[in-house]
UniProtKB/TrEMBL annotation:
Source organism phylogeny: Eukaryota, Metazoa, Ecdysozoa, Arthropoda, Crustacea
Alphabetical keyword list: Carboxypeptidase, Disulfide bond, Glycoprotein, Hydrolase, Metal-binding, Metalloprotease, Protease, Signal, Zinc
Cofactor note: Binds 1 zinc ion per subunit.
InterPro entries (UniProt xref): Peptidase_M2
Protein name: Angiotensin-converting enzyme
Signal peptide: none
Obligatory cofactor(s): Zn(2+)
PANTHER family reported in the protein's UniProt record: ANGIOTENSIN-CONVERTING ENZYME
Pfam families in alphabetical order: Peptidase_M2
Positions annotated as active site in the UniProt record: 217, 348
Species in which this protein is naturally found: Daphnia pulex
GO biological process: proteolysis
Single GO molecular function: metallopeptidase activity
Annotated Zn(2+) 1 binding sites: 216, 220, 244
GO cellular component terms given for this protein: extracellular space; plasma membrane
Amino acid sequence: MAKTRDYSTLLEAWSGWRNAVGPPSKQLFSRMIEINNLGVQSAGFHDTSEIWKNELGISNLENIVDDLYATIQPLYVQLHAFVRGRLSAIDKTGVVHSDRPLPAHVLGNMWAQNWEPILPQLLPTAALSGGEDATQVLRRRYSSFNQLVVVAQDFFLSLGFQPLPPTFWSRSQFVRPNDGRKPVCHGSATDFYSQEDVRLLMCGKINEDDFYTLHHEMGHLYYFLTYSHQPFLFRSGASSAFHEAIGDTIIYAAMATKHRHRLGFVSTGNKTNPKDLDIINLLRQALVKIPILPFSLALEKWRWGVMAGQIKPNQYNQAWWNLKLKYQGIVPPIERSEKDFDPASKFHIISNTPYIRYFLSSVLQVQIFQALCEASGQGPRFGKPLNQCDIYGSIEAGNRLREMMSLGSSHPWNVALKVLTHEENPKIDAQPLMDYYQPLHEWLVIENRRLNYTIGFD
Ligand SMILES: [Zn+2]
């Protein structure tokens, strides 16, 4: 999905995957929902969504996420308009229309949740280059996936974290084993609850996507290690959203222009002027970090509806696409019916993993990034834009982060957030995210107006 831009090949992959996994799992899924609900009802809850919402320790969770998204939506709508305008302008096949919702298969990702692979198509001219192709750079420099793990670890070491323990290196699975075993390959990090036995499971390949996934998983691993002195019951995150946010905060730092230079992702001979390069890099980050917000919101609203019985099995697929259209402005590329079960194409639906944590994490990670940025003496408080912040090598930023992480779940999440932000009554707040992307947001508004691109997907 990331590599080819041939729309018929993409459609084949998109529908092939959904045909393979959807229909066989629909009945099993609805039965699982029934059984889950029987279990929680015997404990006095209405349905499973109630427990899933409670887990985050945020009262009125649904209103809170709606409010957060209301702040972010104007940015998403501009990004969506720009992507659609650019794709339709270069599309000779009539698949992408300039004023209709985006078809789900053309965005560089099986689930349309990360649009970064289509960045080259979005750049206005070939002369404007976002730098080197990071995957090519990684393949040139490194011959084994282990080396990539070392590079990801290096960012954490620069913040004063200890090297991962020897058992991590000997007991993890970094790449797909070639001895006939067929493991689940979805990347995961696991705490074995000794003082230092933490492990990674991946079927990693040397490419940009997996490189950043490593940072994400390493955030979990270092969180496990940093609270390992706590009693067993407190050895988890301030909330699951915090657990997801740590590694992604580091991804923000690692994707910053300065660090991309350090990694050799921007060649020294690059002729693009620095201001354009900054906008391109913000666009790259936005393509990774912004579509996941409406994606995760639509996904979990669907599942809450299913669990609460508001969405019946004979409405599963239609309700899924209704929410995708409403929040993401995306439609299926071919006709769908209730014979299809497209939610099953996503790992977290089939593995029954709660998902709103990823929405909250996407907001929280920029708040944490801002706090670390300030701890290192940079950022808005020091008159510098948040997106220019470079925390690599900052022990002060590392100390601030470790102070929060070492709490585990011994305190409510707002105490953990206070340790980071030093605010009296901190809330989960989308403003740092909007500040981070503010120059890009402005640029998108101007470009969309100049190019007369349709805005919105009502
Ligand atoms: Zn994770």
